[in-house]
UniProtKB/TrEMBL annotation:
PANTHER family: BLR2979 PROTEIN (PTHR33490:SF7), BLR5614 PROTEIN-RELATED (PTHR33490)
Protein name (database record): Transglutaminase family protein
InterPro entries: Bac_transglu_N, Papain-like_cys_pep_sf, Transglutaminase-like
Annotated ranges, domain Transglutaminase-like: 176-246
Source species, domain of life: Bacteria
Coiled-coil annotated residue ranges, if any: none
Amino acid sequence: MKFRIQHVTRYEYAEPVSLCHSIAHLKPLQTRTQRCLACSVRVDPWPSVSREHEDFFGNRVSYFSIQQAHRTLEVTALSDVEVEAQLPPEPDRTPSWENVAQRLYDKGDGMMTDARIFSLPSAQIPLEPAATEYAAVSFAPGRPLLEAVLDYMARIYTELEYDPASTTIATPVSEVMEKRRGVCQDFAHLAIAGLRGLGLPARYVSGYLETLPPPGQLKLQGADASHAWFSVLLPDFGWLDFDPTNNQMPSEQHITTAIGRDFQDVTPVRGIFYGGGAHQLTVAVDVNRLPDPPEEAV
């Protein structure tokens, strides 16, 4: 399935900004189930310096610096992506979750050793005893990993309420646990906190989700948004994604832009600026399915 994604981030400042330095995680990743066919990032005003690099996690990072006075900043990313469905293994035939945690320390297994960083606490996902205790309900001794994670995801979906007004990007996991409400970022952070508390490798995934309008209604342009979920490493298979906001394993409608330990590693656009005073931020995202090319006549 092919998609075209347009992500527009616009800052409006009360006073002129004399200088800004920013980085963006807006270019989709190349994975075994996803191909970035084309991608561009346009910055207005035109930056004095711009370049791209790959970070520690393999993400495509755009850096730019604007060294002229400006009252608005607009960053537009346009990407064409092809996504294939990933067929997961049978949940009850996966190894026990304890076995997976133990294999992190197998020096002969490079994939598991590399994943060890995702089992450690991070800036926005410290070890949280309440989250570990919450996750442990799904992880009975000897339970197959995939079966346990699916149950854990379903519990987050049913027991926490989606409420955009309840949290901010800085809300800690402990507060999400207490309020039992939040948004996709909060649910991903909570899920990861519980998994890491059990010694399992879990990473934060940032991207987009194709949303379809109700039958008979037109899709509103700019109404989509960035999305977040988490993934867990299954030995001898690879990373498996889980979307607790929708209680599903992501398939063709999820597009990945970046992976990291938590939200801070994959922020779509962030930076520092001098001047500006108060500012207003608006974000508009469109995820549209591209039609298949017509078949050639024989």
